[in-house]
Design a protein that fits this description.
Structural class: mainly alpha
Number of helices: 10
Radius of gyration: 38 Å
Helix content: over 70%
Strand content: under 5%
Largest sheet: none
Length: 225
């Protein structure tokens, strides 16, 4: 039979071993809990960041939609020949977003029609600086030049517009300039291209004063009848 001291040490060792194991298990559980908690916090932060980005994008989209609506208002005002209103409307758009290139194009052509060619050109050029391939700005640069009888420059910019879009009114603009010059061949050539895209262009050509110098020629008559 083993002695009492030996039993004492065995029991003591067992107790300390159990305590040690308990400490280790407790520490492990705490570490695991901390890791889980940290991971959870990271997930929460990621979710909050994602929600913040979504909200920010929604605000940007809403602002863009609002500016598009305001720009369209100015665009319609220009076509209604309310040039001063169009200018003021597009200025509001530009104030809200100086990178809104479409607003510069409308303001520019409205300024040109209001008698301010130089300022109008500056605004159209700003539109093209922001977006060199914006067809409507190229078209408006041609239109403004035609309005002020800079015909050669107008043809250049109508053709530049046609590099990025097949727009019937650019073909029509070129035809009308050649019509003023009495150049039957080029008038018919470019007017036909306009009509091929939009047959209703014929109705405009029938009463267009720009074609008076070629109206009596058979080629022109056959094209618009």
């Amino acid at each position: 039979m083993k002695s009492q001291p030996f039993k004492f040490w065995v029991i003591t060792l067992a107790i300390f071993s159990a305590i040690g194991i308990g400490i280790i298990v407790n520490a492990t559980m705490k570490n695991t809990s901390v890791i889980v908690s940290n991971n959870k916090n990271e997930e929460i932060k990621k979710q909050q960041l994602k929600e913040k980005e979504i909200k920010k994008q929604q605000q940007i989209n809403q602002k863009q939609k609002s500016l598009e609506k305001l720009w369209k208002k100015g665009y319609d005002e220009f076509f209604d020949e309310k040039y001063k209103l169009a200018i003021e409307t597009e200025k509001q758009v530009i104030k809200e977003d100086p990178t809104f290139y479409k607003a510069y194009a409308v303001e520019g052509i409205a300024l040109a029609y209001s008698g301010n060619f130089e300022k109008g050109m500056q605004q159209i050029d700003q539109s093209l600086k922001l977006n060199p391939n914006y067809g409507y700005a190229r078209f408006n640069k041609a239109l403004a030049n035609e309005l002020y009888k800079h015909y050669d420059e107008a043809i250049i910019w109508y053709k530049k517009d046609l590099e990025v879009e097949k727009f019937e009114w650019s073909y029509y603009g070129i035809a009308s300039i050649y019509g003023r010059k009495g150049d039957v061949g080029n008038t018919v050539k470019y007017l036909k291209l306009a009509i091929d895209i939009n047959p209703s262009v014929k109705n405009n050509a029938k009463n267009e004063e720009d074609f008076d110098n070629v109206r009596s020629h058979m080629e022109f008559k056959e094209l618009i009848e």
